[in-house]
Amino acid sequence: MRDPLAEPSDLIRSVSRALRVLEAVGRAPKGLTVKQIARRCELTVATTYHLVRTLAYEGYVIRREDGTYIVGLEVADRYRELVTAFRGPATVGEVLRRTALDSGYSHYLGRFVGGQVAITAGAEGARSPYLEDLVPGFDEGAHATALGKALLATLSVDQRFRYLREYGMRPFTPNTLVAVDAIEADLAAGDRRGMQLEMGQFRQGVACAAVLVTPDKDMERRVVLACALPAAEMMTSARVVRTRLLAAARSIADAINSDT
């Protein structure tokens, strides 16, 4: 949600409106008419028509025969570019895929992007439950995922408090920790364990574990590695998971450093 108090004095309103139109269309897989877009964006029909025509010309929306508009293929191109930029060197992706293949578990990289915890790369493993939300760009649930906890653990207590206050602690499942004191105790246990862990806090029946790949004074350069697996398997193989995660983290750190 945009903070109206943070609106820049030199905001170009036509660009802002065009992005609002694109967001509205993106949230409607069945498509929207110009009038529907105008209502949802609180714009006049005339203004919306001009914005939609421009977005269609640039390929960011597509007009269908029934007069509705859907997201255009240029959006997919921008997403692929985002995935490539987030992932970093190609060798990082190769290590991530090999780790997922060898272990059978889905693995994810995460870091702070614009001060917010986000997944930046992922590789699916055949033995892990499919988690459709965990794709590059996913920036919710830092308090409920091991990946998010591993990054939150690198912050000071005050920084964590401000982060959790700003982004909230949505209860994804009945097991999700939604109190700051509980989060602090959980992170402390993870530090002692040498691996941040969650069991059914993001998705029931699924467990995630995460370790730090690269520490850095600059929070945006800190990287963590996480894996997801059935909760029942985590209960019997947590030590093995930690050993494999730490080994994979070293390989990814080497891949990152070799490109700098």
UniProtKB/TrEMBL annotation:
Q: Where is the HTH iclR-type domain?
A: 12-73
Put simply, this protein is called: Helix-turn-helix domain-containing protein
- Pfam name, any one: HTH_IclR
The protein's matches in PROSITE patterns, at most eight in alphabetical order, are given as:
HTH_ICLR, ICLR_ED
- Spell out where the chain crosses the membrane: none
Instruction: Enumerate the UniProt keywords alphabetically.
Output: DNA-binding, Transcription, Transcription regulation
The record's annotation in PANTHER family points to: HELIX-TURN-HELIX TRANSCRIPTIONAL REGULATOR, ICLR FAMILY (PTHR30136), HTH-TYPE TRANSCRIPTIONAL REPRESSOR ALLR (PTHR30136:SF24)
Gene3D superfamilies per the UniProt record, alphabetical: 3.30.450.40, Winged helix-like DNA-binding domain superfamily/Winged helix DNA-binding domain
The record's section on InterPro entries has:
GAF-like_dom_sf, HTH_MetabolicPath_Reg, Tscrpt_reg_IclR_C, Tscrpt_reg_IclR_N, WH-like_DNA-bd_sf, WH_DNA-bd_sf
**In this protein, which residues make up the domain named IclR-ED?**
74-260
The record's annotation in SMART domains points to: HTH_ICLR (SM00346)
